[in-house]
Specification:
By secondary structure, the chain is of the alpha+beta class. The chain folds into 2 domains: 2-52 and 139-279, no CATH class; 62-135, Alpha-Beta Plaits (2-Layer Sandwich). 65% of the residues lie in helices and 10% in strands. It has 9 helices and 4 strands. The protein has a 4-stranded antiparallel β-sheet, covered by helices on one side. Strand 2 and strand 3 form a beta hairpin. Helix 2 (16-52) crosses helix 7 (189-231), helix 2 (16-52) packs across helix 8 and helix 5 packs across helix 8 (244-264). The chain is elongated and about 105 Å long. The two termini are 29 Å apart.
């Protein structure tokens, strides 16, 4: 392993200019990966948390329910307990009570279940459902935004995989004579794969740390200010951020795709014969 590390360092300096270009390109693709990862996380978790929050100015998982009863005496506590037995209903708050009608605020456990509960009461006699105008949201739009977030993340992951694969292929093409010499010296395909993987991992790791700086700067200087200017006072007025879990997730993705890209190089390595030395 020490010999492989030494050869990795030597090759990094030997192909210094090419490795600098590679680091810049991969850093940019990792930056896009970080931004798309942040966007996917925000749209799939933070938006839901915000919409389900009771601390915001607008509560999106609440609606008003009027019940016209015919009983001369309504056992309110018992009636509330009956209402709470419906699925997804978290709480019932009585707003007013008179001889014929009880008006309540119904709090649902999740904003995505509000329409389902409303449909249940809409078909019942003596019930009138009233939506608070500012609490009505387009759940289909939210779903579409989430899909876009996940889809963009997958596209950027594929872009990173292609970039790393192209670099490994180019590196092997440039070093066919060197690889042929290694084979002549007794190195097998496993040794050569290890060498390629270590070199690619080191360069990718360097690019990763450069990308962290680019991600933080781009989110603070460009992406979040753009979101504020474009989507202020809307549900999409969110702030993208990158935390430790996200950074570890990105690192895991990079390790995985670097391994897969290196595995794809084995077929190319196998085609190189020690006879290449006779051509040089």
């Amino acid at each position: 392993m020490n010999n492989f590390l030494k050869m990795t360092i030597i090759n990094m300096f030997r192909y210094k200019f090419k490795n600098i270009i590679y680091t810049i390109v991969i850093s940019l693709t990792i930056m896009l990966l970080g931004i798309s990862f942040s966007f996917a996380h925000t749209t799939n978790k933070v938006i839901d948390d915000n919409l389900n929050s009771l601390n915001s100015e607008v509560v999106y998982r609440i609606f008003r329910l009027d019940y016209e009863y015919s009983d001369t005496h309504l056992d309110l506590n018992k009636y509330i307990e009956i209402i709470k037995q419906y699925p997804s209903i978290e709480n019932v708050h009585v707003l007013s009570l008179n001889k014929k009608t009880v008006t309540m605020d119904i709090l649902v456990d999740d904003y995505r279940n509000v329409n389902k509960i409303i449909q249940i009461f809409s078909v019942k006699d003596n019930y009138t459902v009233i939506r608070y105008e500012n609490s009505i949201i387009n759940t289909d739009m939210i779903k579409t935004i989430k899909i876009i977030g996940v889809f963009s993340l997958l596209i950027i992951i594929i872009l990173n995989f292609i970039s790393i694969t192209i670099n490994i292929k180019s590196s092997i093409d440039d070093r066919q004579t060197e690889i042929a010499l290694f084979k002549a010296m007794g190195y097998n395909h496993k040794h050569l794969f290890t060498l390629i993987y270590i070199e690619s991992s080191v360069l990718t790791l360097i690019s990763y740390f450069v990308a962290i700086f680019l991600i933080v700067k781009s989110l603070n200087k460009f992406v979040n200010p753009f979101i504020v200017r474009t989507f202020s006072n809307t549900l999409l007025s969110i702030q993208l951020y990158i935390d430790l879990n996200a950074l570890l997730g990105i690192l895991f993705i990079l390790i995985t795709i670097t391994l897969l890209a290196s595995l794809c190089s084995i077929k190319q390595i196998k085609k190189i014969s020690p006879s290449e030395l006779l051509k040089s």
